[in-house]
Inverse folding.
């Protein structure tokens, strides 16, 4: 039976990320489209990103809005770490 470390190593070798939660495709799709169009306005500030997601989308669900903002914040943070 493979341990968590071995699974994480296999995922990292394949270019994946072991830490974090699995997000539905629609959260990723919306987030990536927003980043593609408006990358310069988003930052690593989650609260500000929530406001921007509300402003630039018609998402009515607070839960979905927060998940999109969280994923955007995560992607921006990862981008900042790799520099």
């Amino acid at each position: 039976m493979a341990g968590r470390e071995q699974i994480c190593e296999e995922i990292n070798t394949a270019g994946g990320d072991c830490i974090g939660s699995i997000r539905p495709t629609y959260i990723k799709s919306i987030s990536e489209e927003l980043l593609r169009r408006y990358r310069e306005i988003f930052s690593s500030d989650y609260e500000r990103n929530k406001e921007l997601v509300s402003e630039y989308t018609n998402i009515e669900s607070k839960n979905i809005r927060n998940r999109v903002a969280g994923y955007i914040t995560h992607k921006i943070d990862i981008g900042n770490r790799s520099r």
